[in-house]
């Protein structure tokens, strides 16, 4: 029977840089503005933000952000990536905001918002990957 060999501990290094608290707060403030431009309801905003409570969302809208957990920072980062990709693809800002609600063949006729409202981080990432591919990123 082979013997197990003890391997020394090594420090874990994430492939992605950590999002700071200040960056998370900035993205949360940006999400409030973005969701307004996308025409997202309060309930939809809470779904997109991973089950954020309506009470917390209401606080965000008044500028009271508070602590943002790592998974929520990841959601915010992907939402900001979607916004950035749309601004690159569409030179006219209005078109970039309305695109989110339009049906899309790539999503079986559903809108990007419909896809993202599946509630999982992977749903948001699916839209981001699609846009990154469209813009050649």
Protein model, in words:
This protein is mainly alpha-helical and 137 residues long. It has one domain. Helices cover 58% and strands 0% of the residues. The chain has helices at residues 21-38, 42-48, 54-61, 70-89, 93-99, 112-116, 121-134. It starts with 20 loop residues before the first helix and ends with a helix. The model has no long low-confidence stretch (mean pLDDT 93).
Radius of gyration, rounded? 18 Å
The number of distinct β-strands equals 0
Termini gap: 50 Å
The helix count comes to 7
Order of helices and strands: HHHHHHH
Describe the biggest sheet? none
Structure class: mainly alpha
- Could you list the spans in which at least 5 consecutive residues all have pLDDT below 50? none
Helix content: 55-70%
Mean pLDDT: 93
> How many domains would you count in the coordinates?
1
Based on Cα principal axes, name the global outline: globular
The share of residues in extended strands comes to under 5%
Give a nutshell description of this structure.
With 137 residues, this protein is mainly α. Helix content is 58%, strand content 0%. Helix 1 packs across helix 4.
Record the SSE blueprint:
Elements: H1 21-38, H2 42-48, H3 54-61, H4 70-89, H5 93-99, H6 112-116, H7 121-134
Helix pairs in contact: 1-4, 4-5, 4-7
Task: Name the features.
7 helices; single chain; globular; 137 residues; mainly alpha
């Amino acid at each position: 029977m082979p013997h197990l060999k003890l391997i020394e501990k090594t420090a874990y290094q994430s492939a992605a840089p950590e999002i700071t608290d200040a960056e998370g707060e900035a993205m949360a403030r940006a999400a409030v503005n973005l969701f307004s431009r996308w025409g997202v309801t309060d309930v939809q905003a809470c779904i997109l933000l991973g089950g954020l409570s309506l009470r917390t969302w209401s606080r965000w809208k008044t500028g009271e952000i508070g602590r943002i957990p790592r998974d929520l920072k990841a959601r915010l980062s992907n939402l900001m990536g979607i916004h950035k990709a749309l601004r690159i693809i569409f030179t006219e800002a209005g078109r970039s905001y309305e695109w989110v609600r339009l049906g899309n063949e790539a999503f079986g006729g559903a809108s990007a918002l419909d896809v993202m409202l599946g509630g999982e981080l992977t749903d948001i990432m699916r839209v981001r990957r699609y846009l990154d591919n469209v813009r050649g990123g």
